[in-house]
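To whoever is on call:

I kicked off a structure prediction for a single chain this morning and the downstream step that reads the tokens threw a length-mismatch warning. I double-checked the sequence; it's 269 residues and nothing unusual in it as far as I can see. Pasting both halves so you can look.
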Amino acid sequence: MSAVASRTTSGNELDDGHTQPFLTLSWLHLKYQFLETVRIPIAVLGNVLFPSLSMFFFVVPQTTVAGNPELATTAVAALGLFAVCSASLFTYGLGVAEDRQLPFYPFLRSLPAGPGPQMVARVLNGGIFSLFGLLPLILIGWLFTAATVTPGQLLAGIGTILGVSVPFVLLGMAIGYALSAKAALPVVQIILFPLAFAGGLFLPPQMFPAWLDAISQATPTRAGRDLLVQATTGVEAYALALPVLAGWTLLFVVLAVVAYRNDEGRRFR
């Protein structure tokens, strides 16, 4: 009798889940994805510490940079974007690939909720962990450099970096759905550091030769960096920054959806 009751209850939960509003289902996925991640602290600390250590080792000791309000603020913004890229690609590129290997995941995929709430929750979760990566950078910049922003610039910077995080979360999801965990790790590493360098997150784009600057302006990291610098310092981004970022976002949406559907076709129909 208890087994029958259990099956009946399970069926009712599935039926209820099928009729739940999209936002309710997205919130549930967001909640449990967040809890799943924070239960492994090293998964959060690893993405937070590297940009902060880079700030301490490469920016704070350089008095010409750390002592200049505009340059110091730009450095904080660039490393903040690197924290976003790292968190997005490793958390979702590697994390989704590892999730797909778990026995529970095919069952989750077979539920009638559809892929939309789960994907929306991953994007929102990426924004949350992006903010976690920014907090120590902002604190270091405030305590050890001349970086300064007005309250309006701070809010604009937070809003910008949340928007900029979206394409990188989508790229991480595309990698995670397309590759196994063993393959996803090196691919993420191969993608992350060239994009960060070409986007001017480690060296100012003003130091690039003309040919590298032209390539840099076509990357999502450079577009995101310049938009974030514009929000926090007022220095104008290059004219095509927003269209470039929007174009990459659209491309990564397509890649994530195609990778998801291909993975679904391999696992069940």
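Update from on-call: the warning came from a stale cache, not from the record. Cleared it. Sanity check on the structure: Confidence is low (pLDDT under 50) at residues 1-19.
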